[in-house]
Amino acid sequence: MEQKVYKHFKPHLIMVLGQMGYTLLYFVTEASFNHGMSPYVYVTYRHVVAGFVMFPFAYFLERNVRPKLTFALFMEFFVLSVLGVSLTLNMYFASLKYTSPTFISSMVNSIAALTFIIAVALRFEVLDIGNPRGIAKVLGTIISLAGVMTMTLYKGPIMSNLWRPLINIQPISSSVNEKSELKGSLLTVLCCITWSISFIMQASTLKRYPAQLSLTTWMCFIGAAQSAVFTVIAERNNPSAWIIGLNIELWSTIYGGIVVSGLLTYIQLWCTEKKGPVFVTLFNPLSTIFVAILAYTVLGEKLYLGSIIGAFIVIMGLYLLLWGKECDMEVDYKTKGKLQCYSEEPECRI
Hints:
It is a single chain. Helix 6 runs antiparallel to helix 12 (305-325). By secondary structure, this protein is mainly alpha-helical. The chain is built from 12 helices and 4 strands, in the order ααααααβαααααβαββ. It is globular and about 55 Å long. Helix content is 70%, strand content 3%. It has one domain (2-324).
């Protein structure tokens, strides 16, 4: 019985742990950018590290199950790397220079709603508004988005800190003007859109190439090459940007490469194959809450009442979405349009 419960909730637990890993990423990258590291160089180096770390696991563990690589599949990997790695992450970390970790982690929560809308439009997600679970998914999406908007647009009074911050990290956004903040906001919005599309495409690609480790490795190497080309253009007047020392720049690159681009990307692909793309994005709000708590308790960052209210609204929406997804059904193109239920509960069987 316990083993059955663990198997059922394994994807949920893994995604929660994954969001903890993303939470730490916000702060180590902000510290490295404060130290002078170029976000474009960071994205390139990070995926080079991840590619070399994941390669031996992909080569040996999936050599008997890895499908044959065709030109069409390679081009699919190329587009997926643009959407999920080079373009998206360069916009993502560039926006961190002009905003703050709390703002970005709040805006990233809109990915769940965007992914859900796109998935329904492309028939990756079946929506039955006559079913209570279908209604729950719609309401959960709206409520989560409302929580995100609350955290973004409404500040309210500042919550007083109960103790001095344990670590002092000067926010990058403190030295930028209103024009730069608008630039950062636009970059974040565009990042969320391309990220949502990449989640949908991952689900489609995994149907034809069900080898998560190998797909992760391909995305890392291709994404690193794409990012390197972009970095050469963006940093053409600053060749010294490619040089990093034995400091926070190196450690953030290693952490981002091994843990985030390697391990967490593999986890994300595994959960996408098991539960679908919308399920994966549902856990993004947890990172916002973790970031706000860590920023307030450890770094002494200002915490507004609006952030607390928005967090509770987001959690309510998350629970509704998860409940709706428990008996979720997606169109399985392998079975010529037959509905496939991801849940293993007997009452969810078709």
